[in-house]
Amino acid sequence: MQARYVCPVSRGEQRSAFTRAMGSVMALWIFAAAMGCKGDAPSGSASGAAPAPSGDEAVAASGAEAATGAEAGDANTGAAAPAWLEAALREPPELLAAAPTHPPASEAGQCPDKKARDRGVGVMTSPRVPAAGKTMRIWAADLGEETPLALRIETEDGEPVPATVDAYGGVPARSIVRFEPPAAGKYTVVVGRAGEGLRCREFWVAKYEKAAEPPSPPSEHVWRVRGRWDASEEALYAAWVAELFAAPPGEDLAWRSLHAVTSDPKRNLFFNHEGWEDSSDFALELTPDCADLPYYLRAYYAWKRHLPFGFHRCSRGGTDKAPRCFSSWSVDEPPDLSEKWVSGEEPYTGRDVIQRFFSRTLAWGVHTGNGRCALDDQDNDLYPVALTREGLRPGTIYADPYGHILVLTQFVPPREGRPGILYAVDGQPDASITRKRFWEGNFLWNPDPKLGGSGFKNFRPFVWDEREVEVTTPSEFPDAPPVVSKELRKVLVPMSDGALARLEGYGRPAADQGQLDADAFYDTMEGIISPEPRDPLLALREAVDALAEAARIRVTSVDNATRWFAEHPGERIEMPWGHSIFETTGAWENFSTPARDLRLLLAMDVVRNYEEKVARAPAAFGLSAAELPEAKARIAELRDLLLADPMYAITYTRSDGSKQRVTLAELLRRSAEFEMAYNPNDCVERRWAAPPKSAEIASCKRVAPDDQRKQMAAYRSWFAQRRRPARGDPGPDVPGVERPPEEED
Prior knowledge:
The chain is an alpha+beta fold. It contains 19 helices and 20 strands.
């Protein structure tokens, strides 16, 4: 299955498109000035009484292809935009993902002796048995220092092998080589900095590539554990995740499933590590949702490396109660085998066992409750991390208070006043994977412990420990029950906070984030992502970009529901009750958008009230108290222009097949109606809150049933108050609609 990698234009084309679009914004300003809507000071915001033009008016007003900036002013009105606005609308400094450097091989130094090796530096080669003349990958990573690593490959005789090293600084520092070994034999890779060797690894290259098939099925364990987690493995894991989802900033990035990513040899450094598992008839199907995704990534890496892996069986929590975990399970236990396999009715291979582990044992075993255990609860899979640049690395998860989970993938540093970006990926109920940036509209925050332990967390490594376990053996006497006894055995268990704190390179578990209110949390995070003062107007534009990104992603979600109804004419999707509208199973989970719409409403609030965000922490934006009033006025004026600009508009397909464009300004004006726009039984026009009696709504051919609309009206206060109900909240009674018996509190 191919990735849906959305990059409609090249970077150069994006810049020219941006220039044209900014010309359209300037023309909109000039149009507004000519109509008397703009003066020396702003006359309102997108939610105020003087909305910017939208729809056909916005197109006519923009004149983007005919004139830009002052030229449009000279030709049409003679008005000139203020200098600050011209400066604000210039193309901003381009944010660049950390560009690779290519340190000379000599900087790797010499292979250190065993005692001098830096055990925080990891080195990995793939595939497991490389062949001469065939592409292999080598990567090294370090969480302890951000300076790029140099890397050198040598033959058994000590001769260097020519290879291009892509070295990246940051957390982790990582260096990657893709090359074709020239001949069979023994090689050594040396990793170091500034001429000092830090770590080395030997590997053998075969003369020919051998066809590989899945191994025989295991019976005692899912996979044999041969290694252990330490700082070097965590660095390699973070580097693998970073490479798996790397992309230039600003590009929309999405795949239909996780296996669309792992089957891409340009992304997956472990591609076909064993020779069969990612690109053949034996390829695994990996289809996690948001709760499964971090576990799938961790398990996939652990499987390739034969490392420990496990998880807890946890509750989902409830009203005023955080989730709690009970027993743990690990891959050292016997695999779950199909009855037909056990009976011999169907043959099976080691591949089938691994596929069943992912799609059944793991997918059925974890859920969003695993990520939301209390921050001071050690009996679970994850531990809270410090909010620092070092703590927030690729592979770190974010569990929001309402059940959504994301995985950090990439940090893009700030540049010349333009804020940096922290990227993450998440899974969806339809198994698609999308990339999202950190901001209030994507990363919801509520420190209320009754909702569980929200925040950033890392996996606890599973380690060997001696524990007393129950052992059942058949009785030696006929018809007697089996004998149950207890004995000490080595089992895999998750590490405690105390053990983690003593483990070099991991960092002490830190629950401090749980003490932050929403404003403090977002201010802290933005200070980490962009430590230097941010230009408030560039920051506003980033917020508008993020809002537009959220709206574009919603187009796909709504279209999915439209396609489902086209394939199931006349059917109705049942609506759950209470909190379950946000988290359930089946068609409602797949095609409704209550959680997405709540995040979209929060995103609208961020943009609508951006000047208040700046006023809360003016120093973070390089402003003094005296400069704040003028800055707030400029933010309001620029926001109106950006929201009205066609560059940020979304386009959806109406029920009659025609295209409808909606600007962000129009979306904000419709925000109240978005409080009841999540029901998949409604037509697409209602899903986009088309105004009553408008030409846009005229093509609507499907309306949610009356009982469901009454439910939505009863639940509307949750969206109006931007408040997701606690798990288990049954919701208010709905006059005239009987609650199903199984849904009663």
